[in-house]
Amino acid sequence: MSAAMYFNGYANGDVVAEGSFMGNHTFAVQKGLNLGVALFIVRIDPLNPFEIPLLNTIILLSSGATVTYAHHSLIQGNRKGVLLGIILTVILAVIFTGLQGLEYYEAPFTISDGAYGSTFFFATGFHGLHVIIGTLFIAVAFFRILSYHLTDHHHLGFESSILY
Fold first, then answer.
1. Domain 52-163 sits in which CATH superfamily?
2. What transmembrane ranges does the database entry give (predicted)?
3. pLDDT at 3
4. Nearest Cα to 86, choosing from 150, 6, 21, 12?
5. Exposed e or buried b per residue across 87-116, where buried means at least 16 C-beta atoms within 10 angstroms of its C-beta
6. pLDDT for 39-71, tens place per residue?
7. Residue extent(s) of CATH 1.20.120.80 domains in the chain
């Protein structure tokens, strides 16, 4: 590209450069961009946030409570509480993952439906992957607790899985 196509290190097509440095975002352009965003939002049939998304939020918050219960039980030497807390946490994580799969299946849009679809599936997909990895991490800690590898003073792997 020629030097004329850049302004302060930004390509001429860059929205930041156009609006901030080049002064190309006049009132009429700003109004058009706002209308474009509004039309984009109106044309997508988004998910109802009071259905699966709300349920999954409740499940995630509950799993935080159950894993905290398991951790405190381990510190207090309550083996039964540790096992119950971890089992409940893993069950909640599996339910969350299943509901996210159902949400994907029932979504009225796809990943190829523009910015909304690709952003939705990218963000929720990476979060879902995070939950799956965390579930595996906690499951490993569960088997280590079953095998008496972790104690009230020696459980770094379990703490790491909680922090993850």
1. Cytochrome c oxidase, subunit III, four-helix bundle (1.20.120.80)
2. 52-70, 82-100, 120-143
3. 47
4. 150
5. ebbbebbeebbebbeebbeebebeeebeeb
6. 666 677 778 889 999 999 999 999 999 999 999
7. 52-163
